Inverse folding.
């Protein structure tokens, strides 16, 4: 019985360190993890520079193996300390952790795949765990809720822009013609998109007075169009209700969206860790 309690105790402690972002140990774990990820990415980048790789290949390779082993141990620890390992293995972060760890092992059997180690840049998404402090969590949740609430308006706006680019592309194709670079309607639509977004690559431009007049109007219109999505989202953000900033992660289902002062998970009913 005592042995069982001890096993449960160290698994709980390990869980709090790895999965919880609001404990001191958890914050330090996440910070160290991010630093190691950054170090790994820098190593991969340095290895791609021939002059550096020629002089420090062995050192960089050993460092990369050390980091890979550390990530492997972390991946195993994440599986061990939760009640339902498959919840983590097939979760968004679980898949990213696997994809960022396996390339180094694959490079042993398949030459030329070592560059896939750069996939571990995806693990930088875990930086959001460090930012799961109340002030950051509230702001990010509010933005996400506003984006979800305004998705229909934004979709209608994007559809309108698509129709507008088709019209503009067709008009410019007729006015300018292939002799001025507008060789097809799709290519003319490309010009319309580049002009509307005020990017202006300059690889294609109107030469006739009428075409240049239309282009000027499209450029001015582009400034107004850019502001529309911002206004839609901002309007929704002003309507948002109170955002809950509870950072507890359920040890059973890994759900991390709970009400303030919640004791039990609102998804599976499991008791949350509050130690």
């Amino acid at each position: 019985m005592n042995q069982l309690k001890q096993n449960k105790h160290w698994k709980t402690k390990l869980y709090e360190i790895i999965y919880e972002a609001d404990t001191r140990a958890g914050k330090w774990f996440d910070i160290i993890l991010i630093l190691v990820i950054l170090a790994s990415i820098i190593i991969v980048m340095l290895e791609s520079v021939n002059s550096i790789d020629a002089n420090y290949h062995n050192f960089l390779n050993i460092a990369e193996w050390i980091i890979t082993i550390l990530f492997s141990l972390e991946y195993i620890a994440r599986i061990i300390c939760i009640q339902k390992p498959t919840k983590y293995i097939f979760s968004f972060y679980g898949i990213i952790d696997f994809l960022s760890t396996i390339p180094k092992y694959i490079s042993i059997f398949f030459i030329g795949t070592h560059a896939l180690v750069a996939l571990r840049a995806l693990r930088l998404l875990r930086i959001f765990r460090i930012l799961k402090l109340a002030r950051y969590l509230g702001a990010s949740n509010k933005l996400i809720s506003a984006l979800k609430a305004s998705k229909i308006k934004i979709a209608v706006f994007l559809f309108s822009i698509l129709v507008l680019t088709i019209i503009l592309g067709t008009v410019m194709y007729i006015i300018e013609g292939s002799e001025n670079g507008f060789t097809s309607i799709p290519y003319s639509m490309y010009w319309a998109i580049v002009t509307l977004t005020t990017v202006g690559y300059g690889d294609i431009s109107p030469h006739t007075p009428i075409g240049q007049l239309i282009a000027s109007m499209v450029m001015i219109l582009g400034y107004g169009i850019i502001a529309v999505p911002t206004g839609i989202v901002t309007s929704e953000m002003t309507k948002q209700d109170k955002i809950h900033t509870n950072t507890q992660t359920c040890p059973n289902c890994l759900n991390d969206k709970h009400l303030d002062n919640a004791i039990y998970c609102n998804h599976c009913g499991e008791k949350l860790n509050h130690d």
Q: What stands out?
A: The chain has a mean pLDDT of 79.
